[in-house]
Specification:
Blueprint: H1 3-8, H2 13-61, H3 66-77, E1 91-97, E2 101-103, E3 111-118, E4 141-148, E5 160-163, E6 170-179, E7 190-198, H4 206-209, E8 231-240, H5 248-251, E9 266-270, E10 274-276, E11 279-281, E12 289-294, E13 329-334, E14 361-366, E15 379-380
Antiparallel strand pairs: 1-2, 1-3, 3-4, 4-15, 5-14, 6-7, 6-8, 8-9, 10-11, 12-13, 13-14
């Protein structure tokens, strides 16, 4: 056969080309098999890291050992053949917010970061099936998971608080945590009951005026920390009738005043606050509180021109229908005597008298710095 005929002969070309490309084909198939294995390993590690971050932060929220809970979650989600995937030093506590991300140096702990690794240095690199035969090294596989809980998801102490000193009744405001998810009666679901303020002028002590029947507010306010899932910051109004303007009633509740014997009845009103979509609702009827959402603190300040707080007597309160959101403020205006009470109401000494102006207690609360009220669920952010 001449050289020309040999070159022009097309028979068997495919076989020659397949033979020449067989190493590449086999290498690609081997690489594809190992990549599939690596993907399975990666996904399992990511799921384990996610579970560990969530478990660690949930434990911290419950005042338990976060790193130990995270390690237990890893062990529960990965076989022992994966080796030393997560060590204690791979679990970092820190602070997370949407603007700055994760900060491991912050003392305000609201997040847990978990790093899981498989590599030669740890002695747990993923075993190769075929690709090593073609000179492909074992890959390092690493994943990261961060679980965070929104910080400041309840009100901080009031930006402004005023209990009307001119009121004839003695009033106190308490803050407490209410468990919206708990069982039992309402009283059993209230905790951290904290006396915030009363309506005595500065320098007067109710413990002395009441003959020891009522305690003075603490010098330092220990604001309730309602950071458990389902808890809301709630308020209690304690109203003791007539005694502020007539202290004689403390010692003799049957004393005659203006020809009457009004007594000193005592009432406690609890908001037992519920949340739906960050909007508060209060569990008492008739209404005792109105709320107003303000873009600025001055808009909630009744002493400032241009404020948006309703005013006037004998009116029905309209609570805010919008959730408290970062950067805004919520005004609380209390009426110390409920509307629609039965009995005489011709004078303020009568049991059903009220002026319905909803300014006996005025509070301005700053909205949470991140998230919205009640949004305290632990969730993955990375």
């Amino acid at each position: 056969m001449s050289i020309k005929r040999f070159i022009d002969n097309r028979k068997g070309v495919v076989a020659y080309m397949v033979a020449l490309m067989m190493p590449l084909i086999m290498g690609g198939m081997a690489f594809a098999v190992d990549v599939s294995v690596y993907r399975v390993v990666y996904n399992r590690m990511q799921n384990a890291a996610d579970s560990a971050a969530l478990a660690g932060l949930s434990a911290i929220v419950a005042n338990q050992d976060g790193p130990s809970a995270a390690l237990d979650a890893v062990a529960a989600n990965l076989p022992s053949s994966y080796g030393d995937v997560v060590r204690t030093q791979d679990i970092t506590l820190g602070h997370y917010d949407n603007e700055n991300g994760f900060d491991a140096l912050s003392g305000d702990i609201n997040s847990v970061r978990v790093v899981a690794s498989r590599n030669e240095g740890r002695g747990n690199a993923v075993r190769q099936i075929f690709s090593g035969l073609f000179g492909v090294g074992r890959p390092d596989i690493g994943v990261v998971a961060i679980a965070a809980r929104p910080s400041n998801v309840f009100y901080e102490p009031p930006e402004a608080l005023n209990l009307d000193n001119e009121a004839g009744d003695f009033n106190e405001i308490y803050a407490y945590c209410y468990d919206t998810m708990g069982g039992g009666n309402r009283a059993s679901r209230r905790s951290q009951m904290t006396l915030v303020a009363n309506n005595l002028p500065a320098g007067q002590k109710i413990s002395q005026i009441s003959g020891g029947r009522v305690a003075d507010p603490a010098d330092t306010l220990a604001w309730p920390n309602c950071n458990q899932e389902g808890q809301t910051l709630s308020f209690r109004l304690r109203n003791i009738r007539h005694v502020k303007s007539h202290p004689v009633l403390w010692g003799n509740q049957n004393a005659t005043i203006s020809g009457r014997q009004p007594g000193r009845p005592q009432y406690n009103h609890f908001t037992d606050t519920e949340l739906s979509g960050g909007v508060e609702s209060f569990n008492f009827s008739p209404a005792l509180v109105e709320t107003v959402l303000c873009d600025t603190r001055d808009k909630c300040d009744t002493s400032k021109n241009g404020n948006i707080v309703p005013s006037g007597r004998n009116r029905r309160p309209t609570p805010s229908s919008e959730p408290c959101s970062p950067g805004k403020f919520m005004y609380f205006g209390w009426e110390d005597r409920p509307l629609d009470q039965s009995g005489a109401k011709g004078s303020w000494l009568d049991p059903a008298w009220t002026d319905g102006d909803f300014d006996d207690i005025a509070m301005v609360m700053k909205c949470p710095a991140s998230g919205r009220l009640g949004d305290g669920l632990v969730r993955l952010v990375l």
